[in-house]
Prior knowledge:
Oligomer: heterotetramer
Strand order of the largest sheet of chain A: 4-3-9-7-8
Number of helices of chain A: 1
CATH topology of the largest domain in chain D: FAD/NAD(P)-binding domain
Order of helices and strands of chain A: EEEEHEEEEEE
Largest sheet of chain A: 5 strands, mixed
Helix content of chain D: 25-40%
Shape of chain A: globular
Number of strands of chain D: 18
Amino acid sequence: MEQxxxxxxxQEKQRIMVHPIxxxxxxGRRVKFTYDGREVEGYEGEPIAAALxxxxxxxxxxxxxxxxxxxxxxxxxxxxxCVMVVDGEPNIRTCITPLREGMTVQTQYGxxxxxxxxx
Amino acid sequence: MPLPERNDMKRYDLIVVGAGPSGLxxxxxxxxxxxxxxxxxENARPGGQLFKQIHKFFGSKEHKAKIRGFVIGQQLLDxxxxxxxxxxxxxxxxxxxxxxxIVVKTGDxxxxxxxxxxxxxxxxxxxxVTFDGWTLPGVxxxxxxxxxxxxxxxxxxxxxxxLGSGNVGLVVSFQLMQAGCEVAALVDAAPEIGGYGVHAxxxxxxxxxxxxxxxxxxAEGTDHVTGVTIAAVDDxxxxxxxxxxxxxxxxxxxxxxxxxMSQLLKMAGCRMSDDPKRGGxxxxxxxxxxxxxxxxxxxxxxxxxxxxxxxxxEGRQAGIYAAEFLGFISKTEMDNGEEKLDAxxxxxxxxxxxxxxxxxxxxKTEEGIDISRNLLCRGFIGDDEIERFPGVTHKAGVHPVIExxxxxxxxxxxxxxxxxxxxxxxxxxxxxxVDPSLKCADCGMCVASCSGQAIFLVNxxxxxxxxxxxxxxxxxxxxxxxxRGRALGRNGQEVCDxxxxxxxxxxxxxxxxxxxxxxxxxxxxxxxxxxANA
Amino acid sequence: xxxxSDRSRDIGEFVSQPGDEMIICRCEEITKGEIRRAxxxxxxxxxxxxxxxxxxxxxxxxxxxxxxVKGIVARELKVSPAxxxxxxxxxxxxxxxxxxFANENEDEDE
Amino acid sequence: MISYKADVIIIGGGIxxxxxxxxxxxxxxxxxxxxxSDYIGNGGSSRNGGGVRQSGRDPRELPLVMYGIRNLWxxxxxxxxxxxxxxxxxxxxxxxxxxxxxxxQGLTDRAxxxxxxxxxxxxxxVRKIIPYLSDEVTVASWCPTDGHANPLTTTLxxxxxxxxxxxxxxxxxxxxxxxxxxxxxxxxxxxDGSVFEADQIMVAAGYESRKLLGSVGIDVPxxxxxxxxxxxxxxxHMFDQMLGTADADFYGxxxxxxxFVFGGSxxxxxxxxxxxxxxxxxxxxxxxxxxxxxxxxxxxxxKIVRTWAGxxxxxxxxVPVLGRVEEVPGLIVACAxxxxxxxxxxxxxxxxxxxxxxxxxxxxxxxxxxxxxxxKI
Lengths: 119, 534, 110, 377
């Protein structure tokens, strides 16, 4: 069972390169997108949340009332805890929204991309 | 009166909502009988839970036993394709209205469809349990972990604590290790393991500690999970002071049961009942899966939580019932179709974990053997208990040792042994017995075919003071032959030094590597896992 | 009349307990204490709790919290959860943009 | 067969019944409220668009709602111990063409005649108040003292406080019949054989009132229509006004929570069917969305999280039936609010309690008397 790693970027440690049962995990094209203003990369078609998790991103939003951090919880589009502002639209469920080239993904503060202090 | 300008409503003989195991199976059986069928599924890929289940299924050959979930999913897709079933993906059914009308969102459009009959097969979603810090990023459902690993190829975390010892908690713990994550512990407030003993055993022997009668006190971390504290609970589930234990983890998986996603049925006005045995809010259905609304059926987990295998059979039945309801087949044709499926379904609903036995305190196996208490309370069979089971025999040379001690409907091991050393018999919940008089060919097929990874090939005395133990190994990296390390016992503790003497892989083993290690012969009946030296 | 009919039924005064601060409805950030207090203020059913506190009215429409809320309300009323009515479910099953919900073009056959 | 005694029995646990119960209990009157469904405020009270408005109302009911907005709404939150989320930031009724202008002008003139400050404004003025409105809006009627509130918390607030003051509420109790004793209305018979007795009995059960009143020979001519509404996800704050349109394609407001609640119509309200409980039809929500987007292009991306339906008790002449029924001493009637019973409810509760306690009301309600329905010629 050969075990060749495609690439070894430090922040990609969260990705499973070769799985003992599923073998090599095929991915779409590698694409660029922006996360909170920074340019990052992921694979086209994988959920936005997966691309972010590969970068070690855990916090997707801060809640409206208590400003508490939230992230992936159900990963199947039910609990809406993983919502972020995508291309300017808030409350987008990132665990089921496929990543596209050039998407702008922003941490959501309450219901907007503006941090609480300037809301 | 402004009449909305909308031309004809698209109408189908049968609409199936959900392209998972039960939905696809229903569509197949109906289409095979001439019913014009369309299936809608909100996900990008069909197959529902099947494509997240990478373990080999239980049951008998007709239940597709020893085949991995996602392979069954693919087979189901091929079968649906051949049967001419139209499957529409990324199609969210946002409403089930009166007159069996649904509104489906695809892309940025909504479409109205009506079905002369509708089968709801929307499955289940995960239950939640609250503890201090449960809303922190890093606390996820076990199903969520499965989705991330097996569907998206992402590790849910580096070091994980699993809460819940039902089949999902056990299976996902194993899958976390397969994905390269470390499982710090498996915790459950219940005093006994909820899932299959074999699933627990294959986790325990890798060294994962089990903490039953424990639950989470607090998930630590300000922005995301950085640790967790558990503590023992009394039989009223109250914490016992002084029993706190801390683990440094970045992820907590919650596997505390599933609830049927029966909202569409409730919305349509079906009579519902809140049945804890079935997992919560379920439609009241007759023997045919028909709800209180004629022509509206429910199949699979949405009408009662069971395994994917039963969901597929229920789906096939619902497809046949719908075909009869629509007049495509006669009542007698329906009944003939049913017999085989009823028997198959009934076959699955036997044994210690059958719905009818839920909550019962089972002391002895069907064979009258005391069950392994240690397995239930600590996740592994005690050294003093293993000898009393029919799968454990002793003889010179290599022979199978089957550590399968609970009556579950499963018999692939019987068919795997060409030399007929292994016997389950007609009742597939019987414990597999080994006939020591027959010669074992050391082919390894039984080890690879066991869905519960409970079969080992042991040569208790190679003549030079050593013994060999061949075990199923489904992790990466696979150690090379000659690798030195430690052998772990059923309880995951190190028992002795060990050396890998043989590694066998073969398509017939379906991604289960057979690892043979040499150990001092006195540990032949203790050494059950291998850990290479760091 | 069932056990929940008489809204003057004595269920005792609201007494705060440890754990009242626990968030139960994750979308609307409703705590266990708020739910318990509402029961003692007369909200004996899931529907009244939802309308009074918004628990179950958030983006996920109660899919995550309704079972938890039901357990808390049942315990406070000293009845079994099965005695409480199920959370109502309504269209849409998932949040849907207004422009999509409005876009019923039935003509193109995909 | 159990028998219960109270000073007053109110049939119907909606906002009208709960408000009346509150204003009675506040004055130590023992009152029992009987609700047929399992939930308090389960009818129109929790399904309406939350408008607290005067503009657009029939002059016969305008004095009551003006009284409520002047005297009751402003301090209602403190009084009933909930956040009613009452906003008095005005009501805009929007129009786009000459036809709409005529409708709005008619409503404005009618209201001015009874002293309501409401006036016509043009598109630019409208967009000064709400910049998000589309340029196609050319005219609106503007009533600065109108507003909106949260019907759910307000209804349950009245219930909570009345209950705390000793009012008794029974849910899941269906009243089958009213019964006179020696010429005066005394008894209420329920579906499980119980009998409730009181000196005065108020019927506030929406459309169901018609059948009940029939059991003592009184008929309120009303039909029912199934109205539908929807609510969006929470959005950043956009505006505080209550909205409606000349064409009645939609009405609603943005709540304190940030979500938008909008009602609207498919044109089939009088013909919709349900399956035992109010249920939406598959064509209405899309129609409401189209209606909203014509006026609010910016809301196109707002996600709908829920839609619902509710029966409205439509009276023959569009205004409620209110007050004493002389032929049946002891009977008080308060029903047929025709879809706009929320904003007026505090005033109704206050005045019906006064009527029950003293036999008189501060506001003249004779125009809403039960026997006003005459043949057209």
